[in-house]
Amino acid sequence: MKKGEEFRVYTYKSEQGGLYGVGGGSFLQKSSKIKYETPSKSKLALLEKQNASREYKAALESAKTYANIMHMSKARIYDQLVSEYGGNFPPATAQYAIDNIVVNWKENALKTARVYADSMNMSNSAIYKQLISEYGEKFTPQEAQYAIDNL
Question: Model pTM greater than 0.85?
Fold first, then answer.
């Protein structure tokens, strides 16, 4: 250990006058040369955010897959991300993904409408209802109308 180096302390053992567990099975002997500081709330929050960032990235990547391959609406992607049968992400993490994904939602509505039109031979009004249905695709009325207008 060199002067000025910082280590995260994971455990503390009171034996031998005190041992700081710094990970990997390594311990530092408590002494007057070692300064132990409890991190500030802001530093703890930053560490928590860094640890959570992997999950935020995973949610965003999942959202991109749902949007770019399955052409889902924003609402359906959110539902899929938080579903216990889907991504099972916390709501804040799913919302982060929704807020940070770049998608042309009208084009997704159009691609979904084409599937209904081509493979299910549905009428425009039936497609529109399916696109905006809370039990269906959950596109906004504007997105659904764009899709119908461009079929």
Answer: no
Alpha helix locations (H) across the chain?
Answer: 41-68, 74-82, 91-100, 105-120, 124-132, 141-149
Please determine, for residue 46, whether its predicted confidence score (pLDDT) is greater than 80: no
Contacts of 103 (CB under 8 A, 6+ apart): 67, 68, 74
Planar angle of CA 10, 15, 18, nearest 5 degrees = 55
Q: Is 74 exposed, middle or buried (0-12, 13-18, 19+ CB in 10 A)?
A: buried
Tokens 């040369």 sit on residue: 33
- Give the whole-angstrom CA distance, residue 151 versus residue 137: 17
Query: Between these two residues, 130 and 38, which has the higher pLDDT value?
Result: 130
Dist CA 30 CA 115 (whole Å)? 68
Query: What pLDDT, on a 0 to 100 scale, did the predictor assign at position 52?
Result: 62
